[in-house]
Amino acid sequence: MNKLEMKEHGTAGTLITFCGLDGCGKTTMIRMLTDALEANGTKLLLTKQPTDAVRTSNIFRTYTDTPDHDRYDYRSLSLFAASDRVQHVNKVILPALKAGKTVICDRYFYSCLANLLARGYLQDEWIYDVAKYIIKPDLAFFLDVPVETALKRVRAREEEKDKYIDITLQYRLRQYYRDIAEKNEGILLSTTESEKMTYSKIVAALGKIGRKNNDR
Ligand SMILES: Nc1ncnc2c1ncn2[C@@H]1O[C@H](COP(=O)(O)OP(=O)(O)OP(=O)(O)O)[C@@H](O)[C@H]1O
Ligand SMILES: [Mg+2]
Fold it and tell me: Is the distance from the beta carbon of residue 49 to the nearest atom of ligand 1 less than 6 Å?
């Protein structure tokens, strides 16, 4: 795996991204962070990837909801999701950053890479080329839990108690997320501890970049 050579945004805004397995705690941490930032009057854009254009597509739904993907080529879905991220980054996130907003994104380009690798496409170089058109986050959090914990959390949701989940894939994804975080200056945080404890580490990381920005 190579490092992703993403572009710097060079704006007054701040981009914060969260990645990790389903059930790792992204939505929970984003909600706590959003509440705190809203309370102190920070101008915010809360957004997610992939966008609904991908989420509602047949190819995405087939991979997400069923074990039978024979009619589809995963590389096609990955390219589609990567394209969606280029559009979203440059036409949704970048304008908000230029307006000085703090942008919080639920999943990011790293998820595209993790999924591509976890499905065995280890030699695909195109993803590193596409990464050049993606903005490097100021803070990229990777929330990490054992697969069994993540599964329990997803299954605890009434609407997802019988959801199809490719469990073998989850093990591979977890390892790739950890590797991607390490190679790309991501911040790996365990969510096996209390929400309050994980959240305090997010606040501490934010404090550090706040100081860096003030020093400029
Ligand atoms: N330290 C922690 N950080 C975050 N969530 C935690 C933590 N400890 C326990 N949890 C619980 O784990 C669950 C995480 O669910 P959440 O919806 O936030 O995950 P998610 O990553 O957004 O999942 P999905 O990818 O399916 O949207 C919540 O029920 C939350 O209360
Ligand atoms: Mg979520």
Answer: no
Domain presence at residue 8: no
User: Which residue segment(s) compose the domain that 75 sits in?
Assistant: 14-215
CA 108–ligand 2 middle distance (angstroms)? 13
Residue 7 in any domain: the answer is: no
Q: How many domains does the chain have?
A: 1
Tell me how far apart the alpha carbons of residues 51 and 112 are, in angstroms, rounded to a whole number. Answer: 13
| CB proximity list for 146: less than 8 A, separation 6 or greater | 174, 192
Q: Which pLDDT tens digits describe the chain residue by residue (216 residues)?
A: 999 999 999 999 999 999 999 999 999 999 999 999 999 999 999 999 999 999 999 999 999 999 988 899 999 999 999 999 999 999 999 999 999 999 999 999 999 999 999 999 999 999 999 999 999 999 999 999 999 999 999 999 999 888 889 999 999 999 999 999 999 999 999 999 999 999 999 999 999 987 666 655
Taking CA atoms only, the protein residue closest to ligand 1 atom 7 is 195
Q: Is residue 2 part of a domain?
A: no
73 Cα: distance to centroid of ligand 1 (angstroms): 31
Q: For the chain, how are helix, strand and coil distributed in percent, rounded to 5?
A: 55, 15, 30
